[in-house]
Amino acid sequence: MPHAQSAVFGPKQTAAALPYAVLAREIEALLQDPSVSVPPRIVQALHGGGSLFVMPAADARVAITKLISFIPTNAQRGLPTIQGDIVVFDVQTGQRMALLDGPTVTARRTAAVSLLAAQKLAPRRDGPMLIVGAGVQGQAHLEAFHEGLGVQEFWVASRSASSADALVAHAQALGLKAKRIEDPNSALADCPLVVSTTPAQQVVLTALPRSDAFVAAVGAFTPRMVEWSAEVCQHLAQTGTLVVDTRDADHEAGDLLQAGIDVSALPTLADVVGQTAVWQRAIHQTPGSRQGPVFFKSCGWGGWDLAAARCTASVLMPLR
Description:
Rossmann fold; ornithine cyclodeaminase, domain 1; alpha/beta; 2 domains
């Protein structure tokens, strides 16, 4: 039946349609769906240091195109770093079904990917959880790990004390324990869960995570971006378990690439979900290889946005 009119989801409506735990389950389902097709994204460099991202994806029912700008200097302008939209189409008719708020989808699907990785890989699920970077992604990860893992305590570090305080206040408003800390490197020794969501313009983290830590490294998603020092990444490659979100990380995982690590040899989240031979080799390669930290490198992928669109499509286009 034709759609009378496509739905336009503002930020609040988009967020309401994408509960973190539900989105994490949809991401897991998408990774096992052979109909999913996601070509490489187009990244157009912009004058002034920004980028324009064009990210199509499709499955047997839904097709999307994500069009967003990333302007790292917008924080100084009081503007969002990421802006844009996601257009959702019905594959059978080609009709536009919905327009989703791009920044909201980006924040929530990225945090949901980290949540799914933690659900599969974290040696410990209790807190405190260290969040380095108190922007949009910091807040999304706080909400996701509370909702999906039940984390009750968060430590927040940021270059901006006001941003850190705002995220702490948000956590406390949710009934959670939270505090601002000055030095994230010293806090690594006390936190079995860590997420880094900085602007990734320079190395911020130079200390080793705990041996039982799960780290989601989110901030760096181009070869030139970096949050974690090369020495830490090299040490984790020897003593821990490195996992990337998708094969796109082979040429985008700035932290690992700058450390000289062969990213193409690392298992992906799909390998973990599917328990593939690549994943089995990774965890059995050397005795005790799973005794160190788990370092999950997230770079982004149009498939994650497709998973978000599938969540909304389940409402807009019930199964025929």
